[in-house]
Amino acid sequence: MKPIRPVTISAIRAGRSRIAGTAMRSPLLRLDAGDAPTELWLKLECLQPIGSFKVRGAANAMAVADAALLEEGVYTGSAGNMAQGVALAAQRMGVPCRVVVPDTAPRAKLEAIARLGATAVPLPRDEWWSVLCDHGHPREDGYFVHPVSNPAVIAGNGTIGVEIVEELPDVKAVVVSYGGGGLSCGIAAALRALAPEVPVFAAEVETGAPFAASLEAGAPVEVQHRPSFVDGIGSTGVLEEMWPQAHSLLAGSVVVSIEEVCEAIRVLAGGAHIVAEGAGSAAVAAALRGLPGIEGGPVVAVVSGGNIDPQVFRAIMEGRIP
Q1: Which residue in 102, 100, 95 sits closest to 117, CA to CA?
Q2: In the chain, where does the domain assigned CATH 3.40.50.1100 lie?
Q3: Model-level pTM?
Q4: Which of 69, 73, 172, 298 shows the smallest number of beta carbons within 10 Å?
């Protein structure tokens, strides 16, 4: 697969205009966590209409798609949040939507997909991952919106970076959960243009951290993936087309444990009254541990989503690991 070039700031700004009626400017909130190593701020993408940042990229990609390509409908591959973003945009445009999901997708996200009028197509996780690697599925028809490496998706995600710089111009670092790289690279592309001295770190979870392993090896490598409640990030490998820009734009990867993610969820709920899912809390867990070479802050952790299964959330708040 041909590498995807980093998006330009002009593409990000154009995307910002397109998605203005769908995605909101999410709040930036100071977290009062006494044991945090730096001044910590939260970019609350979990408060978007679908509870996730994915609405930004999905809305931008659907807005720029050729109408002729949408005649047979649209589909995407997603563990849940991108599915909801594409489904919402498709619903507003009157376009049928199908979503290829891993068979481990949580019930809460599957129910949300159905509420938005889309059809879920479950596949074994390895086959689902192949949809992302191959940019489509041979049994599906319609326009495929890649959840990560579609340039319009990345540009839509990059609008978060513009908002961070506008609202917190003295930001020292940003940390973003790393699933496929579309969010972190979009934000990093915006900051590279607007505040090039500000590093953007990836946050991964120990159950599947291919970006950290690839950085150590100097090239994309495969790792073991262990399913967990942190379903929005973690995989066996880095998408090859994303590796060049992820390697060049991101300052490094902080790998956190499942226990640290659970603690971050409890800190967000208790200290900020924010409900976040596992993937959305990984960046907070990384910031609470401390980012390499960053002292004082302010540091922004992007809380990328809040669609957590109620039973999982209850277990975490009771001090258990789901």
Answers
A1: 95
A2: 9-53+151-317, 55-145
A3: 0.94
A4: 69
